[in-house]
Amino acid sequence: MFDTVRKFARAFRAPSFQDREMAYLNEARDRVDLEYRMREIDRGLFRKTGF
């Protein structure tokens, strides 16, 4: 019973910073694009708050 609740909760949770960063890096077309995206992440692209 708890397994189904956990699966249900996981399906509706928001992606974490790490999940979003990894998805962004996986979309890189080549090494140069990957390095550019890595620098953007290092600058805090996904870790900015709304305030």
What Rg, in angstroms, do the CA atoms define?
15 Å
* Percentage of residues in DSSP E strands: under 5%
Fraction of helical residues: 55-70%
Helical element count? 3
By DSSP, the count of extended strands is: 0
Number of domains: 1
Q: SS-based structural class?
A: mainly alpha
SSE series: HHH
Mean of pLDDT: 87
- Kindly report how far apart the N and C termini lie: 40 Å
Oligomer, anyone? single chain
Low-confidence sequence ranges? none
Quick one: overall form? elongated
Largest sheet: none
What this model shows, in words?
Helices cover 63% and strands 0% of the residues. The protein is an all-alpha fold. The longest helix has 12 residues, at 31-42. The protein is elongated.
Outline:
The chain is mainly alpha-helical and 51 residues long. It is 63% helix and 0% strand. The chain has one domain (14-51).
List the helices and strands and how they pair.
Layout (H helix, E strand, L loop, with lengths): L1 H10 L5 H10 L4 H12 L9
Helix pairs in contact: 2-3
Please give a handful of descriptors for the protein shown.
63% helix; 51 residues
